[in-house]
Amino acid sequence: MATTDTMTPAQFVAGLPKAELHMHIEGSIEPGLFLRLAERNSVALRWDSEEALRAAYRFTDLQDFLDLYYDGCRVLVRAEDFHDVTRDYLRRAHADGVLHAEMFLGVQGHTSRGVPLDMVMNGVLGAMAKAQAEDGIGAGLIVVAQRHRSEEEALAMLEALRPWYPRLLGFGLGGAEVGHPPSKFAAFFRRCRALGFKVVAHAGEEGPAAYVREALDLLRVERLDHGNACIDDPALVAALAASRVPLTMCPLSNLRLGVVDSLAAHPLKRLLDAGVCVTVNSDDPSYFGGYVNDNYLACQQALGLDNAALATLARNSFEAAFMPEAQRLDALARINAWVSRSEGVAA
Ligand code: HPA
Ligand code: ZN
Prior knowledge:
This protein is α/β, with parallel strands linked by helices and about 350 residues long. It is built from 17 helices and eight strands. The chain has helices at about 10-15, 30-40, 50-55, 60-70, 80-95, 110, 115-135, 150-160, 185-195, 210-215, 235-245, 250-255, 270-275, 285-290, 290-305, 305-320, 325-340, and strands spanning about 20-25, 100-105, 140-145, 170-175, 200-205, 225, 245-250, 280. It has an eight-stranded parallel β-sheet. The longest helix has 19 residues, at about 115-135. It is globular. The model has no long low-confidence stretch (mean pLDDT about 95). Bound molecules: hypoxanthine (HPA) and zinc ion. Zinc ion binds near residues 22, 24 and 283.
C-alpha cells in the first residue's frame, strides 16, 4: 500500500477522483488525430507534421488562440470526426481519474461552416454513450454560444437544438470576451433558464471583474468559467465565497494565453484560501499543453499546494458538478478513501 513516504504528488493527483467541468471538445484534438482527420476529409493544412503543429501552439492572447482554434475546426466534418475527438478526450480523462466530465461544444463554429447539426450532435452524443458503457465515465454536454456573434444567432441555435434538449445539460458562453459583455446575451440566458437548463458563462478571463458581476447578476449563472478577474474586487470575492458559486479555473490555459504572467501569480490559491469554490480544469488540453492532472500538478508545484488543498480542489469539482446527488456522494466518499490511503490508513 502507498504511504505518505512513497506517494509522490503525481501519484496522489493521478489517483484522486475528480470531475472536469471546463473543457472544449474542439480544443482537445491532439496533433496526431488532427492530421488524420485532415487527410480523411481532404482538408488542406499549413502544417504537415505533429511537431509543426505543436510549434504553432504559441499564443499571444485569447484572440490569437481563437483564430487558430476556429481554423482547426475545419477538420471536423462528419459525425465520425466528432465522435473520434470526443471519445479520445473521454479516454484520456478516464485515465486521469476523471469520474465525471462536463464538456463544452460550440455548435455555431460548425453549422456556420455548413456542417449539419445532426452530424455534430450524433457524433458527440454517440461517443459519450460509448465512453459511459466502456469506461463508466459520466459525461454531460454544455453548448456554448459564441459571444462575437449576435444574441439572435444564439437564440436561433437554441431553437435548432430542440430535438436534443433531453440530452443536454445546459448552455454557456465562450469566445472573444472583451467588447462582448455578458449583458449582450441576457435574453438568451433568460430563455435557457426558462427551459430548465443549467447556465454557465466564461467571464473574467480577459474581461474585467464587472463582467463577472454581470454574469452573476444578469445571466444568473450557476458557475463561472475562469472568473480570474474577481480577484480585483474584494467584495465580489467575499460574495463568491458566501454563495459558493463555483469558478472553473484553467491554470495552464491562463499561462499560455497570457492571462497570468506566471503560475506563481495565479489567483487560484488566494481564492481557495478565501473560501471560494475553485476547481481546476484543462480548457483546451491539446492546445495548452496539459490535461486535468497536468493542471493540478502545475498548481501544486507553482503554488505549493499540499495534498489537503489538492483534495479540496477535487471535492470542489464534485460540489460544482451538475450530477445526481447519489453519484456526488459516492465520488466524495471515494476521495476520502484515497486521502486515507495516501496517509497510510486502511481505507
Ligand atoms: N476562452 C473563451 N473561449 C474559448 C476558450 C477560452 O479559453 N477556449 C475555447 N473557447
Ligand atoms: Zn474555456
